[in-house]
Each structure stands twice: as structure tokens, then as C-alpha cells.
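Working notes for the structural subgroup meeting. M.R. asked for a predicted model of this chain before we commit to crystallization trials. I am recording the input and output together here so anyone reviewing the notebook later can reproduce the run.

Input as submitted:
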Amino acid sequence: MESKQQMLLRVIAFNEIFLMPILLIMVFTGKASLLMPFIYYRFLSLRYTSTRNPYCRTVFFELRISVEQLCNHPSFPQFLRNVVVRMISLINRLAPPTMAAAS
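Returned structure, recorded in C-alpha cell form:
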């Protein structure tokens, strides 16, 4: 039962993370308000810094490692690698400091 609960919480964290790009696409297509990404960013940053629920932070880390491994493959195009590295850098700058990093 415990392992299923952890897997479910990881799936929920994954969905919370991938809702942000979907929300941005919805803003550009006119299906969502311009204010929604800012409100959702605040929610996502609070989930990231939560000490009770580390799953969002863990899934962010796992996604970053997976994308970096994909980019380091020799057949991955260089221009896409540069774009991905810039996106990772931007996301890292936007990430709020955690309690462990702040201490």
C-alpha cells in the first residue's frame, strides 16, 4: 500500500509540473487568462518548497536528469541542446530556494 501511495503522489507531482507548459499554451491560444500562469507559478513554487511533500522537488530533479541525459546523447542536435540548456538554466533561476539550501 505504501509503494502505491508514493507512486500516486509522484504521478500527481508530475501532472502539477506539466500543467504549467499547458497553461502557457492555453494563454497563447486565448483559452486562459494572462493572470493564470502567475497564480499557478506561485502554487508550484509553494509545492516545490514544501517540507511535508518532497515529491514535486524530486520529480523536478528526475526530469532534469532525464532531459540532461537525452541532451548528452551524441545524436542529439546541437541547436536543440543549446535551447534545452537555456531552458534548464531559466527554470533553475525561477526555482525558489529550499529550506536546506537557505540554511
